[in-house]
Design brief:
The complex is a heterodimer of chains A (331) and B (244). Chain A is 75% helix and 2% strand. With 331 residues, chain A is mainly α. Classes of the chains: A mainly alpha (331), B alpha/beta (244).
């Protein structure tokens, strides 16, 4: 077996495994854990377009999750519009908000951008928590919104976990494809260049600010879709759960630990960190709630010291080494 | 010969400091024009005024007869003016080819075409063997050449080079001189700031000298090298007296 065939076989096997997982993982709790794992991988992949490529650190992406969840839910509950359309509406609104926030803030560098996005995210949460009604729409402030039960594809509600699993899996696959495709065309080159050396990029014809705003719009659109997905999965959400700072931080943690600005980083990051979070929640939440963020912090410190480009780098190296080793010993 | 770049009475003040003061220059198409002067004379500031990084406090810049004062850097690039930086700014985590392709994307949006253009430029700059090297692993000489390669990839008619030979060994300097002469022979006008006298004398058709933000003279390399004011500016009063 040559190195390329082995590489391809392993990748096909991995994809097959992922797509057939609900056939053998029948316990809904485990499936729920996997769904959330992919949900985080999807969110981080969306975040990565701005946070990884455009070279800035957004720390308020939960705002766009919230915009997605509230938009589709209000449209469904008040106007009977299918969440599938509401999802797109939420995405469009999030993209517009992202552009409005991005135009003044993306010119800021380093910590100033991070702080201003954080302030926006928190501001939105406080606003929603203190608003019971917005015009004719019921937000219920801190109590959140319950989505009435009505199982059907049209209503984006399913009895089993498996459909949710496949929906988020396909969303993740599309997000990864978009990222991969963008990395190979002009916008990807321009974002990378502008993120690393803005002055040099400008001399090469790159309107750095413009490309960052475009990236922000795409990223916010994709992030909002995940908001609708969460709302339809949980059928109940409240501001602290989807608009909180800890959610924004968790996304950034996953990206930084996994590897910012890489394709595999967000997925590997979620794969490694989500179980930590789930198990600390299941076994230790009564002792130390929020322990997973403390553990993330420790991991982040270690990763930044020893692998500043994220764990995707040693893992990719190990994978290549493994391929070489296996094919050489056989050949 | 037709003028390609005209700098008319350009001044750039930073607070009370007149970094560039009432400088006028005319550069003709196809020529290599040198700009020299002691450290802090305002050479790079003048470059930044031409390339759109600074808006001149007074005066105007014309490129091919069109006023480009205050045009943003990325639009200056699209008007076919390329520039390099004195302190090289490669995209360190990317390969040489990637770096060059960023420049070539100014000409086309098709990845395959852009790749070919970038490879052709790397060939000209003698960097083709290094195309898969990460920019951070390049030697300083190669980084300087990469800086020129990226600018050339945008297909400029006028190339602004800010000390692209500083810190290089004599044989490396000779190689760059050769490369630049090749670029000029294809009709690209070059406006170059340089401290290495040997290089600038060999390359330039005409040279302007800046001191304290003002242009103190302009002429052929021979005229400039024999001018008392220039010798004074570079070596100080006493050298001229001793020479006499």
């Amino acid at each position: 077996m040559t190195r390329d065939t082995l590489d391809r076989t392993l990748k096909i096997l991995a994809v097959l495994t992922v797509f057939t997982l609900p056939l053998w993982v029948t316990n809904p709790s485990y499936l729920q854990i996997l769904i959330l794992l992919f949900w985080y991988a999807y969110l981080t992949t969306s975040w990565n377009l701005v946070g990884g490529w455009a070279g800035v650190l957004p720390l308020g992406h939960s705002a766009y999750i919230g915009i997605g969840a509230y938009t589709s839910t209000i449209l469904a509950v008040n106007y009977g519009i299918s969440p599938w359309f509401g999802m797109i509406a939420g995405g469009v609104i999030a993209a517009i908000v992202g552009v409005i926030i991005g135009v003044p803030t993306l010119k800021l560098r380093g910590a100033y951008f991070a702080l201003s996005t954080m302030a926006f995210g928190e501001g939105l949460r406080v606003f929603v928590e203190n608003t019971d009604r917005l015009g004719s729409c019921v937000l219920n402030g801190p109590r959140g919104i319950c989505i009435p039960l009505s199982n059907s594809f049209w209503n984006f509600q399913f009895m089993d976990k498996a459909p949710y699993y496949y929906i988020i899996l396909i969303m993740l696959a599309i997000a990864l494809f978009i990222t991969w495709h963008m990395s190979r065309i002009r916008i990807g080159y321009y974002l990378n260049a502008g993120g690393e050396e803005p002055e040099a990029a400008q001399a090469l014809g790159v309107n750095v600010a413009k490309y960052k705003v475009i990236a922000m719009a795409i990223s916010c659109f994709m992030t909002a879709l995940a908001g609708t997905f969460y709302a339809q999965l949980a059928l109940y959400f409240y501001p602290k759960a989807i608009l909180g700072l800890d959610l924004s931080f968790e996304i950034a943690f996953i990206a930084l630990i996994g590897g910012r600005g890489t394709l595999a980083g967000p997925v590997l990051g979620a794969l490694i960190l989500r179980p930590v979070s789930e198990f600390s929640r299941i076994y230790l939440s009564s002792v130390l709630p929020g322990l997973h963020l403390v553990i993330y912090g420790l991991i982040l410190i270690l990763v930044m010291i020893f692998q500043p480009r994220g764990i995707q780098e040693p893992l990719t190296r190990f994978y290549k080494w493994f391929l070489d080793k296996v094919t050489v010993s056989r050949g | 010969m037709a003028a390609i770049l005209e700098v008319k009475n350009v001044s750039k003040h930073f607070g009370g400091l007149k970094a560039v003061d009432q400088v006028s220059l005319t550069i003709n198409k196809g020529e290599i024009f040198g700009l020299i002067g002691p450290n802090g004379a305002g050479k790079s500031t003048l470059f930044n005024c031409v390339a759109g990084y600074y808006k001149p406090t007074m005066g105007d810049v014309f490129f091919k007869g069109e006023k480009i004062t205050g045009v943003k850097p990325w639009n200056i690039c699209k008007k076919k003016i390329g520039r390099t930086f004195q302190l090289v700014k490669p995209f360190k985590m990317k390969t040489v080819l990637y770096n060059t392709m960023v420049g070539a994307y100014a000409r086309s949006a098709k990845p395959a075409e852009v790749r070919d253009m970038a490879l052709a430029v790397l060939e000209e700059l003698r960097l083709a063997d290094e195309k898969d090297t990460l920019a951070k692993n390049l030697t300083i000489a190669d980084r300087k050449r990469l800086e020129i390669a990226r600018a050339m990839a945008t297909d400029p008619e006028l190339l602004l080079l800010d000390e692209c030979m500083a810190g290089l060994r004599p044989n490396e300097v000779d190689e760059i001189i050769e490369i630049l002469q090749g670029i000029r022979s294809r009709g690209v006008t070059i406006f170059v700031i340089e401290h290495i006298m040997r290089a600038i004398m060999a390359l330039s058709d005409r040279i302007a000298v800046l001191q304290f933000g003002e242009k103190i003279m302009e002429g052929t390399p021979k005229e400039v090298s024999q001018d008392d004011r220039v010798i004074k500016a570079y070596l100080g009063e006493s050298y001229v007296i001793a020479g006499n």
